[in-house]
Amino acid sequence: MKDEDFYKSTLDIIGSSCELAGIEERYRTILSYPRRKLIVNYPVHMDDGGIRMITALRAQHNDALGPYKGGIRLGCSVTEEEVTALSMLMSIKCALLGLPYGGSKGGIIANHKALSKKELERVCRGYIRAIYPVIGPTLDVPAPDMNVSPEAIGWMLDEYERMVGHHQLDIITGKPVELGGIKGRTTAVAWGGIFVMEEVKRIHNCDCSTFAIQGFGNVGGSIAQILHEKGRRVVAVSDSTGGVYNESGLNIPALMYHKEETGSVKGFDKARDITNEELLEMDVDVLAPAAREGVITAANADKIHARSVLSLANGPVDMRASEILHDRDIIVIPDVLANGGGVVVSYFEWAQDREGYGWSGAKVSANLKDVMKKAFRSVNDASKDYKVDMYRAAYLVGIKNIVQAMKARSV
Ligand SMILES: NC(=O)c1ccc[n+]([C@@H]2O[C@H](COP(=O)([O-])OP(=O)(O)OC[C@H]3O[C@@H](n4cnc5c(N)ncnc54)[C@H](O)[C@@H]3O)[C@@H](O)[C@H]2O)c1
């Protein structure tokens, strides 16, 4: 899916949710624009003595409920439309999950694979210097997203603290644990998805024994690992190079080792190579797209054979595809709910750093479970009340919560 289409499909779901909830036209108009978009160009010193200009941005969508919150993406294919749409999804996600945050997103347009570690550090530090005027612990709190590691977040924290001249751990989340990060952040998206899946299984009485996972990075890799440890059968996984399949279940730790050694999941000796299309069309209990936006659309929704779809990536299923799947009795857990565990635990990290008292892993896990189950119930109830699929219900609940906050502010 092209980024313009992702942006358009985000506006479509905002518009149709407002219509469904009977929300006044002016709120739909307000929510269809980001409040602020900062585009920056900054020079980075390269190891060969030259400089390179880096273009980056920060999109801030809506802050009626609290400070903007959103990750930073790094990559040469990052675009303004993609980052803007993702800032909108963040507002809706935070509102749906009951967090006191608005939504934002950042993007750094650079080929991270072609940078040395020192160059990457200078790119990350430069980004913080460039967006400094629009971020702050009660203004906009960044976090990692694709291709941004906890180490990179550590550099960003350090750069901000150098600028302000004092410690400020609550300026950014996703930090290494030894630098004010929180226990459980790296597996938070995966655990959040699993807690939601457990509710789906309990309430809708569906089977969750076999899994196919698209993407084998932070999110896809960690859910595969957890499911494997729980004794579930992860029969297929893929990355950008293709996928692998084993009907009896893949040995995930061995596959991780294979990917580390070869750079790809393909060619794993205890499995058969498959394409990403084959993975999406697999007959499994749960299909978890955990790579990119726009992978299930009206063009391939008819070919999906999973019993449920856990949308761990941002925007992997569009509204039309979700309707088609719903009509075929396939349960779609929307992204704003399924991958919400990441921002929930980011919120715990922010709260921990503002409080100055470390949370235990057990406290993180118990609180995450509570938030995810409560959010699932609100979506499930809205789905029944409005007689719509869970995808539309989730956006509807999030947007209603934002609009209530705007009304309380007399916007
Ligand atoms: N990391 C987080 O905390 C977090 C939180 C919420 C949502 N998300 C979303 O989850 C998704 C994945 O994020 P991540 O942090 O795991 O990124 P990542 O960069 O660690 O991993 C992405 C994975 O997807 C694979 N991939 C890329 N393009 C692909 C394609 N066309 N087909 C199949 N596989 C492909 C990559 O090879 C890699 O294995 C993104 O949509 C991101 O916005 C991430």
UniProtKB/TrEMBL annotation:
Binding site for substrate: K69, K93, S346
Enzyme active site: K105
One GO MF term: nucleotide binding
Origin: domain of life: Archaea
Any GO BP annotation: L-glutamate catabolic process
UniProt entry keywords in alphabetical sequence: NAD, Nucleotide-binding, Oxidoreductase
Binding site for NAD(+): N218
SMART domains membership: ELFV_dehydrog
Domain Glutamate/phenylalanine/leucine/valine/L-tryptophan dehydrogenase C-terminal: 182-410
Keyword Signal among record annotations: no
One of the Pfam families matching this protein, by short name: ELFV_dehydrog_N
InterPro entries: Aminoacid_DH-like_N_sf, Glu/Leu/Phe/Val/Trp_DH, Glu/Leu/Phe/Val/Trp_DH_C, Glu/Leu/Phe/Val/Trp_DH_dimer, Glu_DH, NAD(P)-bd_dom_sf, NAD_bind_Glu_DH
Site (Important for catalysis): D145
Similarity comment: family membership: Belongs to the Glu/Leu/Phe/Val dehydrogenases family.
Subunit and partners: Homohexamer.
Protein name: Glutamate dehydrogenase
